[in-house]
Amino acid sequence: MIEIPRFNISSEEWIEDKLLYGKKLAVLIREKLKIWTNEKNIKPGLAALLVGEDEASKIYVSSKEKAASEIGFHSIVKKLPASASQEEVAAVIHEWNLDSSIDGILVQLPLPKQINSQNILQAISPEKDADGFHFVNMGRLMAKEKGTIACTPLGIMVMIKELGIETEGKHAVVLGRSNIVGKPMAQLLLDSGQCTVTICHSKSKNLQEMVSKADILISAMGVRDIVDHSKIKEGSVVVDVGMHRIEGKVKGDLDYKEIINKVSFITPVPGGVGPMTIAMLLYNTYQNALWKKEKESYLA
Ligand code: NAP
Questions:
Q1: What is the domain range of residue 196?
Q2: At the N or C end, where does the chain have fewer CB atoms within 10 A?
Q3: Other residues' Cβ atoms within 10 Å of the Cβ of residue 255
Q4: Is 64 considered catalytic here?
Q5: Which of 23, 64, 128, 183 is an active site residue?
Q6: Confidence of residue 300 (pLDDT cuts 50, 70, 90)
C-alpha cells in the first residue's frame, strides 16, 4: 500500500463552509515540515532549474525557492538562457545528481523548444526527483512501492486523508488522464483510497453519466464548461485541479459557487489545490533527504 503522509491538522484550521482551503492547509503543512526537519536533524536541499525568460516560470520558481528557504531548506536556483543547449541543461542535472547537499531537483517546465524535456526529466536521479515525474517513480507508484509521487495528485490525496472521510469502496471519477495529474491521481485513489475508480478523457462517450455517479469527483482536464453542473452527485466531494485565467481572474474547470449547495466538500479555485502542489514539492524533498539519511545509517 502506498503511504500517504499524515499531518494531523484539525479540519477547523483549513475547512470553511464546505470549502477545502488547500492554501491554509499548505501553510500548516509547511510549518510541520519545518518542525520535522529540525527534529530529524536534516537539511533538505532543493535545486531548481529555470531555462529562459518566461515570466510565469520565473514567478513559480521564486515562490518555490522562497517556500523552501522559509522552512530552513538549503535552496538554490540556476538560471540558463533561452538559447541553452540540451547538453548544457543536462550538465546542470548531472552536477546536482552528484551534489550531496541536494535532495530534490526540479526543472521548471516548459523548457525551450530545442530541449527534449522528457530526456532532461529522466536524467534526474530517481532518488532526487522532487516532482515525481521520473519513470522509475511512476513505476514505483504503479507497483505500490515507496517512491516520489507527483505533487498535485499527492496534495489532493493528502487533503482527502486530512479531511478524514471514508473513501473505501467509494466511486471516484477522475476527469483527465495525464501522466502528471490524472493517472497518478487515479492510482492513489485506487490503492490508498481503496476506491472504485473511473477515468474519463476527451474520447469518453459517457462523461456526464460518470459524473452523476461520482462520490469523489476530480476534474483535471484544463477545459471549462465540460461538466454539466446539474449532474454532480448530491453529497459528493469535488476537487477542481483546472486553472484558467479569465479576464484577470483564476478559475477552475468548474464554478464552485454554483455547486456548493449540493456537495459535501469542494476545493475553491483559487486557494484550493494549487498551493498544495508546492507544499508537496517540499514534502518530497524532505522525504528524499530522510530516505538518504536512513540509507546512510543502514550502510554505516
Ligand atoms: P493535460 O496534460 O492537458 O491533460 C488534460 C486531460 O484532460 C487529458 O487527459 C485530456 O484527455 C482530458 N480532456 C481534455 N479535454 C477533455 C474533454 N473535453 N473531456 C474529457 N476530458 C478532456 O493537463 P494536466 O497537466 O493534467 O493539467 C490539467 C489541468 O490542471 C490544467 O488546467 C492545469 O493547468 C491544471 N494543473 C493545476 C495544477 C495545480 O497545482 N493547481 C497542477 C497541474 C495541473 P486526452 O488524454 O484524451 O487528451
A1: 151-274
A2: C
A3: 15
A4: yes
A5: 64
A6: confident
pLDDT in tens, 163-221: 999 999 999 999 999 999 999 999 999 999 999 999 999 999 999 999 999 999 999 99
pTM of the model: 0.97
Read off the CATH number of the domain in which 238 is found: 3.40.50.720
- Whole-number Å distance, alpha carbon 5 to ligand 1 midpoint, is 25
Q: Is residue 226 part of a domain?
A: yes
Q: How far is the CA of 287 from the centre of ligand 1 (A)?
A: 27
Residue 111, in any domain of the structure: yes
213: left (phi over 0), alpha (psi -120 to 50) or beta: alpha
Whether 176 and 208 map to the same domain: the answer is yes
Per-residue pLDDT tens for 56-88? Answer: 999 999 999 999 999 999 999 999 999 999 999
Cα separation, 170 vs 2, in Å, equals: 18
222 residue type, one letter: G
Exposure letters 204-243 (e unless 16+ CB within 10 A, then b) = eeebeebbbebbbbbbbbeeeebbeeeebbeebbbbbbbe
- Per-residue pLDDT tens digits for 209-245: 999 999 999 999 999 999 999 999 999 999 999 999 9
- Residue pair 70/26 in contact (Cβ under 8 Å)? The answer is no
The predicted pLDDT at position 299 comes to 82
Judge if 157 and 255 occupy the same domain. Answer: yes
